[in-house]
Structure formats: structure tokens, C-alpha cells
Write a structure and sequence with these properties.
Shape: flat
Number of strands: 4
CATH architecture of the largest domain: Up-down Bundle
Radius of gyration: 26 Å
Distance between the termini: 46 Å
Order of helices and strands: HHHHHHEHEHHEEH
CATH class of the largest domain: Mainly Alpha
Structural class: alpha/beta
Strand content: 5-15%
Length: 358
Amino acid sequence: MSLYEERLEADLLEVRARLRAIAEQVEDNLRHSVRAVLDSNPRLANETLIKDRAINQDIRDLDHLCHLFVARHLPSGSHLRFISAVLRLAVALERVGDYSVAICRVARHIESPLPDTLVHNIEMMSEHAGKALGTALKGFVEGDPDSARVSRGIASQTAAIYPYAFEVLIAAAESERCPARDLFGALLVFRLLQRTAEQADNACEMTLFAVKGKRKAEKRYRILFVDAHHSLASKLAEIALAESYPYAGRFGSAGMEPAGDFDGRLVDFCRRRGVMLPEDDVPRSFNEALDVGPHYHVVVGIGVDPSRHFDVPYRTAVLQWDLEEDGVTNDSRVEDLYRSLMVRVRGLMTTLGVRDDE
């Protein structure tokens, strides 16, 4: 190994060592901040708050070290990807440190012991979020993409707990067993632990980028269109979206009170455009469409308000489209209806950040 290569490897080892030390401190602070909430321990909260200042300084030092590495070695390939990923990861670590600070501030103002149900859910979320973060950071430092995949699975478990924890909070509020300040504080803790898991997922993305040069996959969306009978408008919206953005996700349609068959105008329109409707494709109910597994990212009501007919999941957005605003009525030609829906579909996908080539 040449002298230059030895120097480069030594500098890389120093970056990894600094990063590992910061990661360990961030994990400790997160764990201590949650413990301060669970034990109503303001002393531990204040000690953890103070430690965050040292972490911020260490992150600034790491940032400076990375820029020195670039100036000294003018890296390319895997070395450049690694340093770029370290700089991005440092931002994520600083944010997790800020989450710990916010949790500590909650701990200092808790007035009474939290209900057992809240404590149990905070402990579960903390365990999963902390494990996801620790596994992700270890995988990054060691350049292990397998650890990144494991961390993603753990992070998804944290996301699964959050909606249930939210319901537990509502139940505690309705029973008036806990002061409002404490309940709002617990809500913030839940949210920050969820954000920690999301930062762990970001760390996984950085590991895959640094090791394999793999960029984060584009977001894929699950979208459902709903109208009164699923005989024309909602199915036409599904077709318009599938034609314009075939790789942007999974799309469906349904009706509040489904008709026995699709409108003849829809069938004729599809035949003229060469769109094949599967032989077993018939109008389906809204409840049937919802019973398909993962939640929809967006549910669009065409002439109806879907939110009045189901409990909207935490991560689902509900929209309403009034096509009469576009001059489209029941007597309009199906081509005019399709054109109006296409404009709205393109507007929706632009809002979601989906490009035309996806």
C-alpha cells in the first residue's frame, strides 16, 4: 500500500471513529430522555439536555473533518459516496439529538405518573425506534447493507405501533385520568419516537447509497377513486391515472352503492381507446376496496365525501372532486368527463411530486 493510500485509509478510519462515537452518544441520549419521561425524572432530563450541546459540537467537528477529507484527497467513486453520506447522516443525527432534547423538556413538566397503558406503549415505541436507529447506524459505520435491511423492518414495526398508541392517548383523555399537559407531552413523545424510526430508515438509505451507490427508490402511491355507483366516473379516473402514470403505484376504484355492471358509455369508450377491461372486473363496494391490506395514501371522492363512510387512517388523505366545477354533468359526453378527470389526475400527481416519466 502506498503512502497516499495509507493516509487515505487513516483519514477514513478517523471519520468512521468520530461517527461511531457520535452515534453512540445520540443513542444514549435518546434512551435517557425516554427514561426521564417514564420515571418522571427531571434530574436525568436536565443532565441529558446538557449532553446534547457536546453532541452538536462533535457533529460540527465531523462536518469539518469531512470537508478536509474532500479538500485533501479529492475523492471519487465509493469514497466520495461515503463522505457525502456521512454529511447527510450527521444532519439526521443532529435531528435525533433534537428529538431527545424535546422529550427531556416533556419529562421536566410531567405532573403525575402516566397511565400504565401509555407507559407500555412508550416503552414499546422506544425499544423499536432505538433498536432501528442503533442497527442502522452500526450498519452504516461497518458498511453492512444487510443491517440496513434489518433496521428497515424494525422501523416499520414502530410505525405500526403509532396509530394504536394514538388511540390509547384518546382513551386516556376521555377517562380524565391524566392532566392535559401530560397527555400532550406523551403525544409529542410518541411522534418524536416515530420520527426517530424514520431517521433510522434514512440512515439505511444512506448505507445502501454509500456501499452500493443505490439511490432511494421513488415513492409509490396507493390511490383509490370513489363515486356513488362505480359505474363510470371513478373507474374512468382509475383508467386515466393508470394510462398516464403506469409505474407510480397501485390504483383502484369503487362505489358507495355499486351498480350491477359498468355504464355502457364506459365500455364503449374503453373499446374505442383499446383499453381492455378484465372479464371479471365488475363494480365493487367501497368497503370491499378498503379490505385489501395496506392503507391508501389518497382516497378521492368524485361527487361524494368518503370521509363520512369510514374511519380515515392516520396516514391517509381524503380529497373531494366536484366535476361540475369543470362544467361536467351527468349529461356530458364521456370524452369530456375523461378530459376533466385527466386534468385533475395530473394535478394530483404533480402535487405528490410524481414526474411524467414515472
